């Protein structure tokens, strides 16, 4: 671990490679698991505000869950998260013609309907961020479902921190990311 400002960062995001391989995993990170995607306090109002424009991109079962439970819910850990359909897939998921899970929020963004890509936790994945009183932990969430992404990242030689560069800048800023790049250069010597 190393410290950048008020963050504690795992070396794993520098040492491990990763590039999403949707044709292999089928977007499993959006459909498997016991909880929805984390939603930051600052994102809750956005989730409510964009819902009407995101709704056309969602499946009927996702719409039903959101309209029953809300655009976000309180998880078992007391944090905000996206609601789930049948305790499994994110309510914002839709499936394309190849049966790959995709994000309805991101699709609305890609189509120019909204100007917010998706919750930053989704954008950062496989990095997970945990806020503590004094510091923020930045860790690699290793999950077997992402083994194809690790293999593709290794083949293409793309470290995790480069794969999620846009999201890290979104979360922590350009200066922080520049410092991370410097640490990575030194660490990999």
* pLDDT averaged over residues: 94
The low-pLDDT segments are none
Number of helices: 10
Helix content: 40-55%
**Biggest sheet overview:** 4 strands, mixed
Structural class: alpha+beta
Q: How are the strands ordered across the major sheet? A: 1-2-10-9
Cα-to-Cα separation, first versus last residue: 17 Å
- Global Rg: 17 Å
User: Helix-strand pattern, N to C?
Assistant: EEHHHHEEEEEEHHEEHHHH
Overall shape: it is: globular
How many beta-strand elements?
10
**Which percent band covers the strand fraction?**
15-25%
Please indicate the count of domains. Answer: 2
Short description:
The protein contains ten helices and ten strands. By secondary structure, it is of the alpha+beta class.
Structural description of this entry:
The chain is an alpha+beta fold and 189 residues long. Strands 1-2-10-9 form a four-stranded mixed beta sheet, with helices on one face. Strands 3-4 form a two-stranded antiparallel ribbon. The protein has two domains: 1-18 and 136-188, no CATH class; 28-125, no CATH class. It has ten helices and ten strands. Helix content is 42%, strand content 16%. The chain has helices spanning 12-15, 22-25, 41-54, 60-69, 104-110, 120-124, 147-156, 160-163, 165-172, 174-187; strands at residues 2-4, 7-9, 73-74, 80-81, 84-85, 89-90, 93-95, 101-103, 127-131, 136-140.
Question: Which characteristics define this entry?
Answer:
189 residues, alpha+beta, two-stranded antiparallel ribbon, globular
Layout of secondary structure:
Elements (H helix, E strand, L loop, with lengths): L1 E3 L2 E3 L2 H4 L6 H4 L15 H14 L5 H10 L3 E2 L5 E2 L2 E2 L3 E2 L2 E3 L5 E3 H7 L9 H5 L2 E5 L4 E5 L6 H10 L3 H4 L1 H8 L1 H14 L2
Parallel strand pairs: 2-10
Antiparallel strand pairs: 1-2, 3-4, 5-6, 7-8, 9-10
Helix pairs in contact: 9-10
